[in-house]
Design brief:
By secondary structure, the protein is an alpha+beta fold. The chain folds into 5 domains: 114 residues, no CATH class; 114 residues, Galactose-binding domain-like (Jelly Rolls); 79 residues, no CATH class; 219 residues, no CATH class; 59 residues. It is built from 26 helices and 20 strands.
Length: 766
């Protein structure tokens, strides 16, 4: 009986069959008269003849069993795997041995896959998809705090690591919110608020102190001091009373002849308490006095504890002026606190002036008067309780930073029942998508002004903003967070080559390697160079140490500079020591890792994991394999289970064998001469890394599509789906028309429907 293949129920199994072609690449047009295979009459017999030898039963290669197919509709449900089958069949890498289908048979089945299973009808309208509500990742949080508040602080460094999906750590589906992160947000908000806004000391050091005395009858004690400046001062009396009679001991607090307050002293039994009076004072000499005013003495009272009322003044102190800020306020404080109320009736107006723009930028949308009023009330409560205005603002800022409006990038759906299935995001949301794409941070003032005016899409504004943002220093975030993950550059920080075999490698060389690749990618981005310069370029960026590592003369000093390359050894990313080191083992090169890196990052055609129970190539002295690494690899893949994957993957890796495990050029592997030759599907052959780069550069369509898909995934914060194919096809055509520049790729992305629109949640979605 025919039923579904095993891979349709095996979960996220990836085919062990792959090709050098891009799996997601749009099918090439075939002649209009070409036959489309009939499922029952042709596809099933085709599978029986050419596939079942390897792909049947419980031990089917790669877990991919074709002997259990039932209907065409069932196959259509698993289009990603069908895309992979199409790719390997189209490349001729499957079936791997005789019998082979003739061209007519192969074409008919390919047409069936493309027209019946994989075809996306672009005429029915674009599905822009929807991104899961996502929180700011660690890099975005740090950058947002920096640009919002102008503080040099990276609180997210203490947050849990972000999960990665589709190769990036900004994917909404994987950015969870564990309880420990909630606690981190609260703690970070407190630290950030205190750094960004300077509050006066709650209690400065006293400017004068005087010992008091016991007042056994009506009398007073005083403190003379000089007020250095006009302002609010605090006069403190530490006292307790020997109580007697029918009332508490009372004292008058005076400044000169002026009565400030009359206080009933509740403290007793030798346990003094502080009694404070705040008063506005002009500069100059002042006299602060405390007078005992209700003496009581009844020596014949039967109760000995009720015979004599006395006031014990332990100490007098003067503090001030209060609420005075230091002269050298940080830039963050000056930018945020644009006014300071002199009187209580000015507080609400000043809060409105400060909080409304702050909340608008932090929440990346207009804020309502009611939202501002709620935070103003918090500041008023703090001031009423005796805190400074700045302390109240610190509390308000903490609320802003722990709000979901700040922590998450929200794009709420309409709650109307007749809302359209697809909506164009508003200008505020577009500005936010744009800034987090290119800067990993919030929109700046120029973007917000365009959003507020609703003119971000008008005329040439969007294009102008993209070009401005790419040239802005903040676009270095695209280098760090996109290129660093796409190229696996971040892994370089964790790589530790064997010190015995590579004694010249150290942390300084590691940093120089990374810096070269960062500066090179940045130059392609900022100078709007061709994206194919990433594959092969006449220049790179070096300092003396890295130039010596590359054996390139006449480069001196620690500073990096653009260097024209003297030969074809180093052009493009595949000549960078950073990439070559990341794709090596600690003790030797790894053609497998290097070939896999090319497939994944240059052509977006990642190979599958190896079949189970296949031993790794050993490196120790007891290994049975002998000869050069290439010869040992060839012996290793004599195992048919290995050969299926390694034949094409290793060819790419061997083309880079002239580079050792830390990217140094070599002509020999030990005593064996390096053989960097190889051939690829389609018959292209090469003899050196330079020739391999030319072949890869010649496959421009694959790389153009790869970079577009990778950058679109990063920009959207979601993986690409089959329905994105129509958009991607159009994008790559437009990019080619616009000379394949880096800006052309970015402009196509930000102008695309997936970037500018959002599908509403369907009723059957969670």
């Amino acid at each position: 009986m025919r039923c579904l293949p095993a891979f349709l129920t095996a979960g996220p199994l990836v085919l062990t069959l792959f090709t050098f072609s891009v799996a997601q690449e749009a099918p090439q047009p075939r002649p209009a008269e070409a036959e489309i295979a009939d499922f029952e009459r042709q596809v099933i017999p085709f599978i029986a003849t050419y596939c079942l030898k390897c792909h049947a039963g419980e031990k089917a290669k790669g877990g991919l069993a074709f002997d259990k197919i039932e209907t065409e509709a069932d196959v259509r449900k698993y289009r990603q795997l069908a895309e992979r089958v199409r790719a390997v069949l189209d490349a001729g890498s499957m079936p791997p041995e005789d019998p082979q289908p003739d061209d007519k048979e192969r074409t008919a089945v390919l047409n069936w896959l493309e027209q019946r299973i994989l075809k996306v009808d672009c005429s029915v309208g674009i599905n822009p998809g929807r991104v899961t509500v996502r929180r700011l990742n660690r890099a975005e949080y740090n950058n947002t705090i920096r640009d919002l508040l102008l503080v040099d602080f990276k609180p997210a460094n203490d947050f849990p690591s972000d999960d990665v999906g589709y190769g990036f750590d900004n994917i909404g589906d994987v950015l969870t919110l564990p309880p420990v992160l909630l606690e981190k947000y609260v703690g970070a908000a407190e630290q950030i608020a205190e750094l960004a806004i300077v509050a006066p000391d709650a209690e400065p050091k006293p400017i004068a102190t005087e010992k008091g005395r016991t007042l056994a009858s009506v009398g007073q004690t005083s403190l003379e001091f000089t007020a250095p400046a006009p302002g609010l001062y605090r006069l403190r009396t530490r006292a307790w009373a020997m109580q007697a009679g029918d009332e508490l001991a009372k004292m008058e607090i005076r400044l000169g002849e002026r009565l400030l307050e009359t206080i009933s002293v509740e403290a007793a039994g030798g346990q003094g308490a502080d009694y404070d009076v705040n008063v506005t004072i002009e500069p100059g000499k002042q006299t602060f006095s405390v007078k005992f005013i209700n003496d009581f003495y009844k020596p014949d009272d039967p109760n000995p504890n009720n015979r004599d009322r006395n006031l014990v003044v332990e100490r007098l102190q003067a503090f001030g002026p209060l609420n005075v800020l230091p002269e050298n306020l940080p830039a963050s404080h000056r930018a945020i606190v644009t006014c300071r109320p002199e009187t209580p009736d000015q507080l609400a107006v000043c809060c409105q002036k400060i909080l409304k723009p702050l909340m608008t930028r932090a929440w990346r949308r207009p804020v309502s008067d009611e939202e501002v009023r709620r935070l103003t009330a918090l500041v008023e409560q703090a001031v009423t309780a005796g805190d400074s205005f700045e302390r109240g603002l610190q509390l308000a800022l903490q609320v802003v930073l722990v709000s979901p409006e700040f922590v998450f990038r929200l794009e709420p759906d309409s709650q109307e029942s007749d809302a359209p299935a697809v909506r164009t995001i508003n200008d505020w949301e577009l500005a936010t998508r744009l800034s987090y794409f290119l800067w990993s941070s919030l929109p700046d003032e120029e973007l917000l002004q365009l959003a507020a005016a609703g003119s971000l899409r008008q005329g040439d504004n969007l294009r102008t903003q993209v070009l401005r943002m790419l040239k802005d220093p903040k676009s270095s975030a695209l280098v760090e967070n996109f290129a660093g993950q796409w190229l696996n550059l971040r892994l370089l920080r964790t790589i530790n080559p064997d010190k015995g075999r590579f004694p010249g490698f150290d942390d300084k060389l590691r940093a120089d390697m990374e810096q070269e690749t960062r500066l090179f990618f940045e130059s392609v981005m900022r100078e709007d160079r061709s994206i194919f310069d990433l594959l092969d370029s006449a220049d790179t960026f070096l300092n003396e140490r890295l130039a010596q590592h590359y054996q390139i003369p006449n480069v001196t000093g620690e500073e990096f500079r653009r260097v024209m390359l003297p030969n074809s050894q180093r052009g493009g990313l595949l000549g960078h020591a950073s990439i070559l080191t990341v794709t090596s083992n600690p003790t030797r090169t790894s053609p497998v890792k290097r070939g896999k890196w090319v497939l994944e990052n240059i052509f977006n055609a990642p190979p599958p994991p190896p079949p189970p129970n296949v031993p790794e190539l050993k490196d120790n002295k007891d290994q049975q394999l002998t000869g050069s690494l290439r010869q040992r690899m060839e012996q290793h893949r004599a195992n048919p289970s290995c050969a299926v994957c390694h034949t094409q993957m290793d060819a790419l890796g061997f083309g880079l064998e002239n580079y050792d495990a830390v990217g140094g050029w070599r002509e020999k592997d030990g005593e064996f001469a390096i053989d960097a030759s190889g051939s690829l599907p389609g018959g292209a052959s090469f003899q050196s890394p330079g020739e391999l780069r030319q072949i890869l550069k010649g496959r421009s369509a694959e790389f153009r599509r790869c970079l577009t898909e990778k950058l679109l995934t990063y920009a959207l914060g979601r993986g690409l789906e089959y329905y994105d194919e129509c958009v991607v096809n159009q994008m790559v055509r437009n990019i080619e028309t616009n000379r394949d520049t880096f800006a052309a790729v970015v402009l196509e992305i930000v102008s695309s429907d997936p970037f500018q629109k959002r599908r509403a949640k369907r009723g059957d979605e969670p």
